[in-house]
Write a structure and sequence with these properties.
The complex is a heterodimer. Chain A has 8 helices and 2 strands. Chain A has a two-stranded antiparallel sheet with strand order 1-2. Chain B is an all-alpha fold. Classes of the chains: A mainly alpha, B mainly alpha. The interface between A and B is large, with 47 and 47 residues.
Chain lengths: 266, 227
């Protein structure tokens, strides 16, 4: 199973390798297509045999494939195979007509293989930080593909694409940061605190930092969280919901009223 | 419980981190308000140097080798490498000295920056964090730096200025990371750095390509692909 997962990611790199050693469009295209076909076969095998009985986990949460990601591995690797077959013919024709130089063709296949491998790898990880790294990497590789021709229009498209999606992914990194922080109370290693299945399993645990992420049960998502607890109750570990459960809405305490401290508050 | 949560705002390290956060915010404002392009790049470099100082403070406090590596990488790449590379590309190769192209006036941009800073305090301060920690003071600052970087990307027209705006956003996220969680897992942190370097290289290649094709590499010229 782990070997299959590695195979899916490594196979599209065949085209990158071929381009790196200086293959022309026909050969590099054939290598890319063959790699994509093997990746698709591996994805089908993995979905049909291994993932029916459970999830694949390993390397401290960095490797995580469940049946949903298995399905997406199938669709993405099928897409990669179609794109590889199409671009093999297209790039060979472009090279023959002189529209693209040999260097540009090698650049295309190098970045195509990287793009496919990073995209497939991002489906196989459960670690949200590594997910960011792989997504940003695949964005950059595909941006290089967009701007490959070097003409004004393609450079304009590539610039707009890379600047907008890099900015968006960086905002996602800020979100990942808050997820990581919210899990800082869990008794896990730092890798596992960014691993989605563990975070998900602990989503309702009181150990998640309540002020930043945890949704108080019974509260609507947009309820303002303000501390209504008396000062002697330690706010960090307390498990009192900051809203009235029955009505589901938050009301500020009346001045002078004493908020009762329920049992279970430290 | 991570170590950072014990870092109170009144400890020496907490005061230093707080001060670095303020300096980083000021550098972001300086970037937003500077008219000369090479000064804009220099302010970004200064911001990155302060960020690496903040990482070093956290490294001393937590005795963390990873944070020392992070501080060194920040200083070498963001503080020295990227500003030098962009300056060389801009000033020497493209012979651009001024960046007067802004989509708003300078004062409008600064007022919008002030409003965004206030907004960052409004959304993060009351609910997010427990009191008494240095993160409580610095996280609104880092949010403000993220928003200011986005604003710089919007109001500046030159493509290099937009690239630096993205890097300011990245600096803001790193400032938040240093004070909230000290550091991501090392593999993730190294991958993020690799991505930034690759991103800057690819974007600089695009910028020099655009400059070769167009006169000013300003986003006003990038209008061919409108729907």
């Amino acid at each position: 199973m782990t070997a299959l997962a590695i195979l899916i990611v490594a196979c599209p790199l065949a085209g990158t390798l071929a381009a790196a050693v200086g293959a022309r469009a026909r050969l590099a295209g054939a290598a890319t297509t063959a790699g994509a076909a093997v990746a698709l076969a591996a994805a089908i095998t993995m979905l049909a045999t291994g993932l029916r009985h459970g999830v694949l986990e390993g390397w401290g949460g960095f490797l995580y494939v469940d049946s949903l990601s298995g399905f997406f591995l199938l669709t993405v690797s099928a897409g990669v195979l179609l794109a590889a077959g199409g671009s093999a013919g297209y790039l060979a024709a472009e090279e023959a007509s002189g529209a693209l130089s040999g260097f540009q063709v090698r650049l295309y296949f190098a970045f195509f293989g990287l793009f496919a491998a990073l995209m497939l790898a991002s489906l196989e990880t459960g670690n949200l930080g590594l997910l960011f790294v792989l997504l940003e990497g695949s964005t950059l590789a595909s941006a290089a593909l967009v701007g490959l021709e070097g003409r004004a229009r393609s450079l304009e498209a590539a610039w707009k694409y890379v600047i907008i999606s890099s900015f968006g992914v960086t905002i996602a990194l800020a979100g990942t940061l808050y997820l990581f922080y919210s899990a800082s109370g869990l008794r896990l290693t730092s890798n596992l605190r960014l691993t989605w299945p563990y975070l998900f399993a602990n989503a309702h645990a009181h150990a998640l930092a309540p002020q930043s992420l945890r949704r108080t049960p019974g509260c609507p998502m947009r309820t303002p969280r303000r501390r209504v607890l008396p000062a002697r109750c330690c706010p960090r570990r307390c498990s009192i919901p900051a809203c009235t459960r029955s009505s589901g809405s938050w009301r500020p305490p009346r001045p002078g009223s004493v908020t009762p401290t329920p049992a279970g508050c430290c | 419980m991570s170590q950072v949560e014990q870092l109170s705002a009144t400890s020496a390290a907490g005061v230093l981190l707080d001060l670095s956060g303020v300096l980083i915010l000021l550098a972001a404002f300086a970037c937003l308000g500077s008219k000369l392009l090479n000064r804009y790049v220099a302010y970004y470099g200064a911001q990155s140097v302060v960020l690496s100082f903040a990482a070093a403070v956290a490294a001393v406090t937590f005795h963390s080798v990873e944070l020392w590596i992070l501080a060194g990488l920040t200083l070498a790449l963001k503080g020295i490498g990227i500003p030098l590379a962009t300056r060389r590309l801009l000033v020497q190769r493209l012979e651009l000295k001024r960046d007067v192209a802004m989509s708003t006036g300078l004062s409008t941009a600064l007022i919008a920056g002030g409003a965004l800073t206030a907004f960052a305090y409004l959304v993060t301060r009351p609910q997010l964090l427990p009191h008494g920690l240095v993160a409580n003071a610095v996280v609104p600052l880092s949010t403000a730096v993220i928003l200011l970087g986005g604003l710089a990307m919007v109001v500046r027209r030159h493509t290099v200025a937009q690239l630096i705006g993205w890097l300011i956003v990245e600096n803001g996220v790193f400032l938040g990371a240093i004070t909230l969680v000290a550091t991501f897992p090392f593999i993730v942190e190294a991958g993020i750095f690799l991505d930034i370097v690759a991103g800057v290289l690819i974007m600089l290649a695009f910028v020099s390509g655009i400059t070769r094709q167009l006169a000013e590499a300003s986003s006003t010229e990038l209008r061919e692909l409108r729907g």
